[in-house]
Amino acid sequence: MLLGPGDHAPRDLNILVKQCYFSLIDAFFRITLSYEWVDHDVAPHDAFGGALEQFVHYRQGSTIITVSSVSDTSLFKAVLAAPSTADMVFMTPGKLCTFYPTLTLENNAILSSTGFLVEPEMSIGSVWSQCFHVYDDARFLTSECAPTCPSLWQNVRDDGSSLIVQWDHQYPLRNLLRKSHTIWRLTEACVNAHCKYCSIPGIRRSHLPHRQALIFKALLYAMAVMSPHVVPVHLQEGREHMECIDDLEVNFWVNTLARNKFVMPISRYRKTFHGIPDYPTLPLPYAYTIYHEDPQSLPPPNALMRDLFSRAGLDHGIKGNVLVIKHPKQDRNKVLDVTEGDLPLIHMLLDGGGLSKTLWNQFK
Ligand SMILES: [Zn+2]
């Protein structure tokens, strides 16, 4: 859709809907438009990384429509689970967006972590398509990868690396991107020798810039220690400035990547508090964000949390580490260092019965 129809007129259409709208669009194609089911409820290919729930083909004459449904609240997660960079593109009634415009406009594509699962006899999107040069990694570049390095986390809100074409202003897409908090990366390691994030031994050391000095202090409630510890939190690799809370690298302390290693809505594992739910009239001088681990990584129970807070009769039953970040009041996209003076307020926040209802209950 970004590069035009090519030599052949398009005859297939892929539509992505949320799970709750699937029956509506299914009835529209089969009853209103008289399309036939071709494959009903076949399993989506593994190249979509488990991001799709249902996957149905409809046909009328030579026209084929594929409808995929996603259970997750973020449609971007399904777009970013595509097998290559060239397929990370989508169109709404008023906009077109691509996350790798330079590569795509030059008919180049880099496979994502699941793109390798597409066999030559099964072309999916750009993979094995005649229209694209598809590469396993970024080695074909004769310069550094820059911010689009396959090994760096990308964020859908990064305006600099995405291209948005908008012809209908009714539903601004940028707001949707800004609120999404969906991040992804193509692979864990870069093998482009020109790239400063190259992971080939010897090359990386000579090119690696000094580690950025931007380090924040956060409070960690680790699973098997006697007391909470103040720990350093860096920015993600490739980030020099903090523009948004998503830029923090918290996975060293709290594993939020169990469900999907390469694409995730990062906001699922955190919640920011501007007040204490149990003491709504108590003014908080700062805001605090609490991160916890993905329960699908099956972490052990947090003995420290149990020892600290069970005396109040509240059994959080929290599993895994808990990390607390401090912000200026009402601005969670800035971070302040946690100090000893924050401990009483943070303990009041973690100990509250109100918190049990708003946060912990979801993750037991
Ligand atoms: Zn690179």
Explain what the structure shows.
The radius of gyration is 23 Å and the shape is globular. The protein is of the alpha+beta class and 364 residues long. The mean pLDDT is 84. The strands form five sheets. Strands 14-13-12-18-17-16 form a six-stranded antiparallel beta sheet, with no helix packed on it. Strands 1-4-3-2 form a four-stranded mixed beta sheet, with helices on one face. It has two domains: 12-184, no CATH class; 215-363, no CATH class. 16% of the residues lie in helices and 23% in strands. A hairpin with a 3-residue loop joins strand 5 (89-91) and strand 6 (95-98). The longest helix is centred in the N-terminal third of the chain and has 11 residues, at 22-32. It has helices spanning 22-32, 75-80, 101-105, 173-180, 203-207, 303-309, 343-351, 353-358, and strands spanning 12-18, 36-37, 54-60, 63-70, 89-91, 95-98, 108-110, 133-135, 154-155, 163-166, 182-184, 215-221, 229-235, 248-249, 263-265, 270-273, 286-292, 322-328. Residues 138, 145, 149, 151, 190, 192, 195, 197 line the site of zinc ion.
For the terminal residues, how far apart are their CA atoms? 44 Å
User: Count of helices?
Assistant: 8
The spatial strand order of the largest sheet comes to: 14-13-12-18-17-16
Order of helices and strands: EHEEEHEEHEEEEHEHEEEEEEHEHH
Q: Biggest sheet: strands, sense, closure?
A: 6 strands, antiparallel
**How many domains make up the 3D coordinates?**
2
How much strand? 15-25%
How big is the Rg? 23 Å
Secondary structure category:
alpha+beta
Number of strands: 18
Query: Low-confidence stretches at least 5 residues in length (pLDDT < 50)?
Result: none
Helix content: 10-25%
Spatial shape: globular
Average pLDDT confidence is 84
Give the names of the bound compounds.
Answer: zinc ion
